[in-house]
Amino acid sequence: MRQFITFLFLLGASSGLAQEIGHTSIQKWPENKKAAISITYDDGTLNQFHKALPIMESLGMRGTFYINTGEIPSSKYRAKFIGREVQEILEEASRIPTNSENLFERASLIRFLDMPDAVSYHDRAGAAFEQGRYEQAFSLIDEGLAYANSHNIIEMKEPQIIDGPMIDWDEIRDYAQRGHEFGVHTISHPRLAVLDHENLLYELEKCKEEIEFQLGKEFLFSAECPFGTEDERVMGYALEMFPATRNRMPELFLHEINRSGSFDPKSDYGKSYIQWQRGPLSRTSSELMRSWVDDILTRDDTWLVLVFHGIEGIGWEAIPESIIKEYFKYIASKEDVWVGTFAEVTKYMRQRMNTDVSWQNQNDGIHFEIDSKLDPFWYTVPLTLETVVPKNWKNVSLVMEGKKQSLEIRNSGKHNLVVYNIPAGTSSFKLIKE
């Protein structure tokens, strides 16, 4: 972020203060908050919406929901295998062991076979592959395909990932209109790292198309590839498709700490911002969860991204509703925390780091120009600015697009300051003495 200033000895300010008048900074977080929290959910299970969401709304919070669209009842696109005939692949597997040349095709197929543990073979092989245990991944696929061959299994079915019923798009649209964020989490929650090109793209692209069709393009800002994958091939596709992913955000100004990493509140991470992800599980204590909030409030640069799955008995590692309610109330009690959706926080940081503010002190007030190189379709979050105004100004108004807004003056000891919000897309405005 670059800032420019032209100093004019005007406005009745003394020469000793003239160089300070008009000095403006974009605040690290909106409304001078000290930290940010995003409450995110994976998969789209029922009680995320019927239990957790009402608690959030009662506290004025909005969440981010990464949904698997294939199991939503009225979705256009369902999970499917794209590739050669099943019999052809199985016959080949009976003769040629799984290796680096055929793993992706076989791992893409196996989760669709109508047999016990089909999804488990795929998931375990995918986990082994991402951890560099390639021989184990090959062995798991061989074991599953050998079972299919020995039992003459050639029928396929859609893998069922979600526990219990799913809400439908009419209900999702209502939540979206109330300010909640929805994002891509694939059609059917596969291990993308072991899918071949066609099946990987289908899972990402058709989920993306479904959400755009049902909710609109504005809900394609962020995505989460399942299992928190950071596989380089998968990230190459995802970061081309979406402005942001929760898996990885390769920003020069951001230090990322994923769910398996640790955060030291006293460390200097050498970046303007820190993103710290935490994934509460069913046995995670309330004390530990509260400590995450306390830790980020010891500094002014940290964004806590909470990743929830099951709620109140439905979904993976389901957390009781009572624990969620207590925790969200604790977050809401912290006045210095900004709770924003994943998209809102990402947009604010990027806008702050890519916006130039220049100003000139003139006879009728302080004139500002704002320049941003970011795409105005996506970057829509207001920025909070702080400006030094002359000591002899008793009342200050923000003048923008022909409208006035009175601002409160606060004294920092050395300066008089005003803090105010500027809508995204604003190119010019001024502050005047009233």
Short description:
The protein is an alpha/beta fold and 434 residues long. Helices cover 32% and strands 22% of the residues.
Structural features, described:
Its main location: secreted. Residues 1-18 form the signal peptide. One of its GO terms (cellular component) is extracellular region. With 434 residues, this protein is α/β, with parallel strands linked by helices. The strands form four sheets. Strands 3, 4, 5, 8, 9, 10 and 11 form a seven-stranded parallel beta sheet that branches. Strands 1-12-13-19-15-16 form a six-stranded mixed beta sheet. It folds into three domains: 3-30 and 347-433, Immunoglobulin-like; 34-70 and 173-335, Alpha-Beta Barrel (TIM Barrel); 86-150, no CATH class. Mean pLDDT is 94; it is low at 1-19. The chain is built from twelve helices and 19 strands. It is elongated, with a radius of gyration of 26 Å. 32% of the residues lie in helices and 22% in strands. It has helices at 15-18, 46-58, 86-95, 103-110, 118-130, 134-150, 169-177, 197-215, 232-241, 286-296, 321-332, 342-353; strands spanning 3-6, 24-26, 35-43, 64-67, 181-184, 222-223, 244-245, 254-257, 273-278, 302-308, 337-339, 355-362, 365-372, 383-389, 396-400, 403-407, 409-411, 416-422, 428-433. Helix 2 runs parallel beside helix 11 (321-332), helix 4 (103-110) packs across helix 6 (134-150) and helix 5 packs antiparallel against helix 6 (134-150). The two termini are 31 Å apart.
